[in-house]
Amino acid sequence: MLVLAGLICGFVFGWGLLISGMTQPAKVLAFLDVLGAWDPSLLVVMASALAVGSAGYAFARPRTPMFATRNLWPDKTTIDAPLVIGATLFGIGWGLSGLCPGPAIENLATLSPRIVVFVAAMALGMAAHDAWQRRRVATGPSTLAAKADG
Amino acid sequence: MENFTPLSAAIGGALIGLAAALLMLSTGRIAGISGIFGGLIGWNVPDRDWRTAFIVGLILAPLSGTLVGYALAEPQMPASWTVIVIAGLLVGFGTRLGGGCTSGHGICGVARLSPRSLAATVIFVGVAMVVVAVMRHGLGG
Questions:
Q1: Cα separation of A132 and A125, whole Å?
Q2: Residue B93: count of CB within 10 angstroms of its CB
Q3: Minimum Cα–Cα distance from B56: chain A residue
Q4: Is the pLDDT of residue A11 over 90?
Q5: Of A73, A91, A125, which residue sits at a domain end?
Q6: A-B contacts at Cβ under 8 angstroms
Q7: pTM (2 decimals)?
């Protein structure tokens, strides 16, 4: 059932990105381009997703999930250096390409060679981070936490 | 603002929020794409099956879209392969280090009112805006 839930949620998420136009890097870049012909669509996407998402989370949080024993609700609250540096590096990559992980992976459906190379580089970047973190953990106390927020 | 599409943005955004809520209700997981995808990298990863299913669903969406008139258009990408590789590496490394991306922090985290996610979202949106401003309009604006 976990697999079916994952499939359906991925599918609905993908349709959300598709309908909103967020699978198109050009539309994302038009939002990021505040000095140009600014397109605030991404802001509306986020506001709408947040309205539905917060209502859904408020309902889901006190309940036991249907197909799991408990919620895996992230519990970190401190704004630490890895968060700030990571968000900065991600912001640079996002600004350069107009692609974040969701739309990049969804666009694999187009079989565009540029998308395939981007996703491969993204996977390599993730693997490099994980390998580096494992080394840090193996060689001494680490300030990096292994648990992601999302 | 001639390219502003508020209606499709609101409908699409609502579906994204719905997917995040449904994933929490059914599996108890956060719908963060960098976390779901990143968790598939390596050997011996837990939760491989539902993570794979989520990614498959994500890719099936635009394929099913072609049946109802959504063109499967090749996305507009940077001309330079070097820029594509560097951007991909930064997005991969940065989202893992920062613990999330536009979905995990920007939507799920902000919906949970997480101070970490609020901070991350402000930072990556702000930095990306500066990068685009410099690339398109030069350092002087």
A1: 11
A2: 25
A3: A7
A4: yes
A5: A73
A6: 530
A7: 0.94
Q: Which of B1, B51, B86 sits opposite A6 (nearest CB)?
A: B51
Domain boundary among A21, A46, A73: A73
Q: Do residues A10 and A69 share a domain?
A: yes
Q: What value of ipTM does the predicted structure carry? A: 0.96
Q: Band of the pLDDT at A44, cuts 50, 70, 90? A: very high
Q: How far apart are CA B39 and CA B101, in angstroms?
A: 14
CB B77 within 8 A of CB B84: yes
**Do both A61 and A118 map to the same domain?**
no
B-facing residues of A in 20-59 (CB < 8 A) are: 20-27, 29-30, 32-42, 44-57, 59
Assigned domain for A126 exists: yes
Angstrom distance (rounded) from CA B23 to CA A104: 20
Cα nearest neighbour of B139 on chain A:
A35
Domain enclosing residue A119, as ranges: 76-142
Nearest to A118 among B88, B95, B128 (CB): B88
